[in-house]
Amino acid sequence: MSDNNDRPKALGPNTQLVRAGYNPFDYHGFINPPVTRASTVLFPNAKAMERHEQKYTYATRGTPTTDALCEAVNELEGTAGTIIVPSGLAAVTLAFLAYLSPGDHALVVDSVYGNVRHFCDTMLTRFGVQVEYYDPSIGASIDSLFKPNTRLVHLEAPGSNSFEMQDVPAITAVAHRHAAVVTMDNTWATPLYFRPLDFGVDVSIQAATKYPAGHSDILLGTVSANAEHWKRLKYANGALGICGAPDDAYQVLRGLRTMGVRLERHQSNALEIAQWLEARDDVARVLHPALPSFPGHEIWKRDFKGASGVFSFVLAVARTDEFQAKAQAFLNALLLFGIGYSWGGFPSLALHVDLNDRRILPPPEEGPVLRLHIGLEDVVDLKADLEKGFSVARASR
């Protein structure tokens, strides 16, 4: 974990990515900081141990490697401090455990990541926290859902799998009038395309597994807080003993250096394919915030600087009893698109989305929802692969 005492200079985003988090001359001029693998940290004498008179005391509280990543994320997010944890899900659950107590009420967006919903409905409920889900399009009308014991509002924009946008500044303004902390999962956009704290969010969360790591081989999450809420987050992290490994932190720090140029390619590839899909008769809808046809496009255009490579589309299928068979036929025909969870790495991925856990938002009725992560391949090859999927789906029964 790391506090951010020095504000970032006015550098461009890619310049910031290349330089953030460390000074090579702290490591004899080597460009990448070394990996410090540790559990025990030695003290020079008993008095130094008693008074904690050195920066590092035990590896759960940070190492030079994990601090380098935290400091880089602080610069990108504009936050007072960052915690790294073993996964994106752990990042969300740590934030909830830091700010919620038995008897509290939390408002969580209905388009939240499914595993976060599972945590809310099982662990938080068991701990005596009341969770209420709200429509992502609610905006300032969320005021009507607040109770005297509402302590936290959680946002995710765009929403998982269906990509609904949220009016972040409107929601945060209401939440702060009620003295509630606002957390946000910002994995889709990264701080390059949206900086939550600039729009009133208190705690920004990322699954660094995705675009910061970028190579489909690391699990890591980051939780970054403003000055008002950093101390409580840091305390909760220390009490729980959750920490990211230095080898993983090194790989994510390395991935950060190219995240900007990778995101540009993910964005351009995805938008071209989304527009191509939108023109097809066998596609009922494309769920991509950067498309003018998407219901939340104006909010995306107002607040976001770009789009990532993940979006969904609704396959046009006439009969509901054929939804699953058609979706599976489409996916099984793909060769370049892997069938797998997660996203953010260099290869393209696809999966059939289940939206039946939603409490407020009904799933699309026109057909099954297929989520695509558009990787770094050539678009012409990806289109040909998808064309094969459509052909097989049409022929299947």
UniProtKB/TrEMBL annotation:
This is Cystathionine beta-lyase 2. Its cofactor is pyridoxal 5'-phosphate. GO terms for biological process: L-cysteine catabolic process to pyruvate; transsulfuration. Pfam families: Cys_Met_Meta_PP. Its EC number is 4.4.1.8. It catalyses: L,L-cystathionine + H2O = L-homocysteine + pyruvate + NH4(+). InterPro entries: Cys/Met-Metab_PyrdxlP-dep_enz, Cys_b_lyase_bac, PyrdxlP-dep_Trfase, PyrdxlP-dep_Trfase_major, PyrdxlP-dep_Trfase_small. Belongs to the trans-sulfuration enzymes family. It is an enzyme of class 4 (lyase). Keywords: Lyase, Plasmid, Pyridoxal phosphate. The modification N6-(pyridoxal phosphate)lysine is found at residue 210. GO terms for molecular function: cysteine-S-conjugate beta-lyase activity; pyridoxal phosphate binding.
